[in-house]
Specification:
Elements: E1 11-17, H1 22-31, H2 35-38, E2 40-47, H3 53-60, E3 65-67, H4 76-88, E4 94-97, H5 106-112, E5 116-120, H6 132-139, E6 143-150, E7 160-167, H7 177-202, E8 204-207, E9 210-213
Parallel strand pairs: 1-2, 1-4, 2-3, 4-5
Antiparallel strand pairs: 5-6, 6-7, 8-9
Bound molecules: glycinamide ribonucleotide (GAR).
């Protein structure tokens, strides 16, 4: 599977989130006022809840936002279709899950499979799911980190684009999940900015499970 040939102009990004949006902010800051140099621009930010702090960050940056809540739909499939339609309105080239705490469904993956990426706060394939930091701490690992990956129909199982490592120290107790998560997020923000920029500027191809950045068509 290969990315489409480079089109004219920056790649259109839709960012999905549920939380404070510091990863979104890192993308906004990296793009700055020169989307052409970065290779991408954020055309919309979507959330699954009203109170996601990331929505305010988007609004402050003048980026359109939308909210698509599971509880506003009769079934999960209807929610999945509504989310897919809301994103499609913005004609994205890439969709970035930056702390979006929902699993997308078949309609979403049919529309955007192969161009939906996620950032996860653990070194996949270890500790997938909603509690990657907590689960890694509870397991007693000595290193953990973050993973940017393509999303497939599993939970955090898609091909890995980039990973960053963070040491776990003696001071990291199970109660210290938030502090470790903050250290992971410092690495994660740079990793995500770098990975999205490389995908946008250089394209990619996937062989088996291996993602190759750049060299499209070789
Ligand atoms: C990030 O650490 C991201 O990896 C995590 O949520 C955080 C969002 O931070 N996502 C998951 O745990 C998904 N399973 P942010 O709102 O400050 O960008």
């Amino acid at each position: 599977m290969a990315s489409p040939p480079p089109s004219t102009g920056p790649v259109r990004l839709v960012v999905l989130l549920s939380g404070s949006g510091t990863n979104l902010q890192a993308l906004i800051d990296a793009i700055g006022d020169d989307p052409a140099a970065y290779g991408a621009r954020i055309v919309a930010v979507g959330a699954d809840r009203d109170k996601a702090g990331g929505l305010e960050r988007a609004e402050r940056a003048g980026i359109p936002t939308f909210v698509c809540k599971l509880k506003d739909h009769a079934t999960r499939a209807e929610w999945d279709e509504a989310l897919t339609a809301a994103i499609a309105d913005h004609r994205p080239g890439l969709i970035v899950s930056a702390g979006f705490m929902k699993i997308v469904g078949p309609a979403f993956l049919a529309a955007f499979g192969g161009r939906f990426i996620n950032t996860h706060p653990a070194l996949l394939p270890s500790f997938p799911g909603a509690h990657g930091v907590r689960d890694a701490l509870a397991h007693g690992v000595k290193v953990t980190g973050c993973t940017v990956h393509f999303v497939d129909d599993g939970v955090d199982t898609g091909p890995i684009i980039a990973q960053g490592v963070v040491e776990v120290t003696e001071e990291d107790t199970p109660e210290g999940e938030a502090a470790l998560h903050e250290r992971i997020k410092e690495v994660e923000r740079s990793l995500l900015v770098e990975a999205v920029g490389r995908l946008a500027r250089d394209g990619h191809r996937i062989e088996g499970r291996k993602v190759h950045l750049g060299h499209v068509g070789e």
